[in-house]
Please model this.
Amino acid sequence: MLEIVDLKVEVEGKIILEHIDLEVPEGKTYILFGPNGSGKTSLLRTIMGFSGYNVVEGKIYFKGKDITDLPINERARMGIGMSFQHPPAIDGIKVKDLLKICGAKDEEIPELARKVNFEHFLDRDVNVGFSGGEIKRSEILQLMAQQPDLLLIDEPESGVDLENIPLIGRVLNFLLKGINGNGKKYCLREEREARKRSGLIITHTGYILDYVDADLATVLFHGRIACSGNPRELLKGISEHGYEECVKCIRM
Amino acid sequence: MYKDVIIPDVDEFKHEGGEHEYIDDLEQLSEEDRQQMILAGIDVKEEQRSGTYIQEDQSVVHCKAKQEGVEVMDVRTALEKHEWLKDYMWSGVNPEADEYTKKAYEKPHYGYFIRVLPGVKTTYPVQACLYLETDNLSQNVHNIIIAEEDSELHIITGCATKPHLQSGLHIGISEFFVKKGAKLSFTMIHNWAEGVYVRPRSVAMVEEDGLFVNNYISLRNVKSLQMYPTTHLNGPNAIARYNSILVAPEGSHMDVGGRVILKREGCRAEIVARTLSTGGKIIARGHLVGEVPGIKAHLECKGLILGDGLIHAIPELEGKAPDLEMSHEAAVGRIGQEEIEYLMARGLSEDEATSVIVRGFLNVDIKGLPEQLQREIDRAIEQGEGKFF
Ligand SMILES: Nc1ncnc2c1ncn2[C@@H]1O[C@H](COP(=O)(O)OP(=O)(O)OP(=O)(O)O)[C@@H](O)[C@H]1O
Ligand SMILES: [Mg+2]
Model:
């Protein structure tokens, strides 16, 4: 689904990502760990194609096509969707208008919104005065309308209160599985078959691991991939020993 | 004061001529005139209107009131009918204020008189249209609007020109009187043409507990527009709200602002302006004067520049007493790349994203405006939109 080959990215004259090789196969969900400033958000933004993130070396392939130089909207149309850590506020555009832009039909909007407790925000201007947790829910809601094949999710649980974490976790899980989540029970086999979507999720806390089936985790450290492994084991190592120690241990 | 704006010489324009016949039914308007008026918010079927006044060049071509307690007349007829009206004329605007005002004083060409009687509320808005048809003509109107005690009046005025008009001057004196407890909303949609000079001169007097809402929308080319409507909040708890939405395409010069003078306790004022330059020049002024303690006033001026436009925001706050609350917020800039790219990540092209952001920017929710008029404004923006780029 996504293949990154020897990627090197420069921002404002500074190299922030280097020697990044990463492949997320169809139907797999990967977790990105890494300390603050290690380049996680930058990696997602580079995959999405944001200006300012200059690819100086390497390639990004999506569904077998080289997308390294494609404009953002074409990547979105090919099936890449991203939730933002700090999205901009847009005056005069209501959440429901944005959901239509994302591809939702008028009649399905209230139902979609209800799934993330967001039905009272449909007439609010996008991100204007939203709290941290509201931004998360709004971003996930947009992805629900967009139904992308590759989900790039930046810290879905940070700033979200305890009641809403399971809600976001479950919705994300449905999104990754390509299920609309309309309450219907799926048996395990059906779930596995439905699952064609891929995900790349940034998390510090790992709470999200309780809700989505993550296949692999990768640790970014100073702009490079330090190691990869089982998500829970890596999380345990990081929380017990810290990144510095954790990275050292694996290098040895 | 207006040095940045092209100043036309009033005497370059004809102040005589441009006569047209009265029509009983707006269906008799020519198709092209009708289309122009519709764009300026005029309901030519008059179904959802409590009254209509149409003036072409210097002639009143149609005038009627459709609701009991609502008066719509040309101002000359009104002066004959109401002995007292002469005391209102020129009580707010000084005829000597500038050469345009002076011309309107010396050579007036009608204008409308709209009044609602005490306690009467208009079911539908009253509409007025001032239309320029003849090239190189000056249209000098004097309008008087009176909302008597505890009444409620909504007016929509559309100004437009015949298509392909080369040049013209519009001078519009407007004096508003909002009596005790009355509510008046005045929504002006301007669709001028490239060669037209526009000089509105308006003053409003608002008494105790009165509300004056002044909305101004201009989305088309205009050679030069200059105005500074002033509202005097003369009674306690009087409120004024100005909303303007201005678009200046290349070749347009606008010097537009509003002033509210808060004179009594409990008065409140809010001025909100959204200005967009797609190549033209806009000077966006705003002036709030607080004369007594306990008043509250806020001014918000946001400008967006696309291409090589110019916007100069000049917000002024003048507090003359302790314990008052006055604030302003001004911002001028381009559309942020971050916003465009955010929408691109949701699938829009760069141009589509820009257009969505611009529409959002111009989308001001106006408090206290009947839904029908809000729709009229939304429609004007939607129709203008294709022309912004
Ligand atoms: N637009 C930018 N301009 C300047 N520096 C940037 C920009 N974007 C990222 N950086 C820098 O690149 C580095 C990586 O930042 P990034 O946001 O990718 O980190 P992160 O791993 O997501 O951190 P966090 O866990 O705090 O979200 C940081 O040093 C950051 O300051
Ligand atoms: Mg980050």
